[in-house]
Design a protein that fits this description.
mainly beta; Immunoglobulin-like; 4 domains; seven-stranded mixed beta sheet; 1 helix; elongated
Length: 495
């Protein structure tokens, strides 16, 4: 059929006219088709008609009766003319679904197939043909048919090596629905990714006419799971205090360090120095630490192993994939062995937190913005002590080494006159010692906070930020971001 439209009904090349065509016929499915008219730019009065189905049924191609699911363009028309294919009402209807969206090799998936007889008469000799995906295998004895009011019964299918299952359902009464359920095992050779299986139903009407349904399909996504060749890489970047090449309990991780894979993928270590690449392809992998992202002065620990003398490490497994790979990076601190000895003997006491704080500071009584300068390049906690009047440093709870002949006796702490040198690395006995220093600490007034680091307008390279500040001993400090206090639960590390 065709319509002749007035020029005003054709729209313009910039604003095409759009019309919806609704077609109904007795015994046939209703049609809803969108049509768009785009006039030719040459003012010839001709136009292009674009036909698009909105009802899920196909439309006819230009100049033929061949059907397509895509939109059709009919060029250089003078009248609104097109072929509209009509389809009879379905006698049998089928739907199919799976009980889970994804599976792994070795899993079992349950399929549900529902067949509806939409006619006014019974359909006999009804069969369902189901084509399984590759390496999907029917689990014998699991097929059940629900056909009310009849009781549930078992129906075993005919199967072939190609994965085709044929279920014989028998008679389906007029207007009735039957539900077929069965289980399928996912084999080791099942392809990874989205897998579809298609089912269709067919039967015979009382007139002897054979009717069938379009194919219905259900999909599941296959994951390799334990059989996957993908790998996981995890590790830690840490300061190796005792230089033994292993991460020990009292050693700390380095945050904000960037780690690269050979494919360019990168991650940044968290507040504990941990990192991971959760999905890595099979085969040998190269992991590299970017030394530019390290704090100044840190170098690799030399444990004598050849592979630990480079910032780049090669990781591989005998199977070539499907493994959990670990790679730690032990680093030597800028202070060298002296800092390592102090750390291993516990001389770096928690009193250094008087000058160094992270986001997990205590409740605030005064506020200040992050501004100020570094204090003399070092803080008073460098020797593990806390500040007292007159520039003296009190070193609390330093443990003596029972194997050292130079260690003072626990019962006779050293006096101020015979105090050990401030920079000694010898272990001390338990007790309190006063040490002299030429460093001067200006007093901080109550309610005042002096930020030592970071510097004003300093860029933060990593994911974690460390703040060093000074305040009056009777006051506490907290951290706020845009007026909101940072709770303790959001603090990565407390020192």
């Amino acid at each position: 059929f065709s319509f002749v439209l007035a020029p005003a009904q054709l729209g313009t090349p910039q604003t095409p006219a759009r019309y919806f065509l609704n077609v109904n016929a007795a015994g046939f499915r209703a049609r809803l088709i969108e049509t768009t008219i785009t006039p030719a730019p040459d003012s010839s009065g001709l136009f292009t008609l674009t036909v698009r189905s909105l009802d899920g049924q196909p439309v006819a191609k230009d100049g033929s009766f061949e059907l397509t699911e895509s939109a059709v363009d009919i060029a250089r028309l003078a009248a609104y003319a097109l072929n509209v294919p009509m389809f009879e009402n379905s006698t049998l209807e089928i739907t199919k679904s799976a009980d889970r969206p994804s599976v792994e090799v070795g899993d079992t998936v349950t399929y549900r197939v529902e067949v509806h007889n939409a006619t006014a008469a019974a359909v006999d000799e009804t069969t369902v043909r189901d084509q399984l995906p590759p390496s999907f295998h029917y689990a014998e004895g699991t097929a059940l048919l629900d056909s009310p009011p009849d009781p549930r019964r078992s129906v075993e299918p005919e199967s072939s090596d190609s994965g085709l299952l044929v279920f014989h359902l028998g008679r389906i009464n007029a207007g009735a629905r039957v539900v077929l359920t069965y289980r399928v095992r996912v084999g080791a050779n099942a392809p990874e990714g989205e897998q579809f299986n298609n089912a269709s139903a067919a039967g015979t009407l009382t007139t002897g006419e054979r009717v069938s349904t379009p194919q219905a399909r259900a999909s599941v996504r296959v994951r390799r799971g334990l059989f996957s060749s993908q790998q996981v890489i995890l590790g830690r970047v840490y300061a190796d205090a005792n230089l033994n090449g292993q991460f020990d309990r009292d050693e700390r991780g380095l945050p904000g360090v960037r780690i690269y894979l050979n494919n360019g993928q990168s991650v940044i270590t968290d507040s504990e120095g941990l990192y991971n690449f959760p999905v890595v392809n099979e085969g040998a992998q190269v992991v590299s630490l970017d030394p530019v992202t390290l704090p100044p002065g840190y170098t690799l620990v030399n444990t004598g192993r050849r592979d630990e003398k480079s910032w780049t490490r090669l990781l591989r497994t005998p199977l070539g994939g499907g493994a959990l790979l670990r790679q730690n990076f032990g680093l030597r601190s800028p202070e060298g062995d002296a800092a390592s000895i102090r750390a291993s003997n516990g001389s770096a006491s928690s009193s250094s937190s008087a000058l160094k704080i992270n986001f997990n500071a205590n409740s605030t009584a005064s506020r200040t913005s992050l501004a100020g300068s570094l204090f003399g390049g070092a803080d008073a906690g460098a020797n593990g002590g806390s500040v007292v009047e007159g520039g003296a440093v009190t070193v609390p709870n330093l443990k003596a080494d029972p194997n050292s002949s130079n260690a003072p006796k626990p019962s006779a702490p050293a006096s101020k006159t015979n105090a050990p040198a401030a920079k000694t690395t010898e272990p001390l006995a338990s007790g309190t010692y006063e040490m002299t220093t030429d460093e001067t600490l200006e007093p901080v007034a109550p309610g005042e906070v002096r930020v030592l680091s970071p510097q004003p307008n300093e860029a933060v390279a990593g994911a974690a930020l460390e703040i060093a500040a000074r305040t009056n001993g009777a006051w506490t400090v907290s951290v706020e971001v845009e007026g909101q206090r940072v709770p303790d639960s959001k603090i990565g590390e407390k020192r």
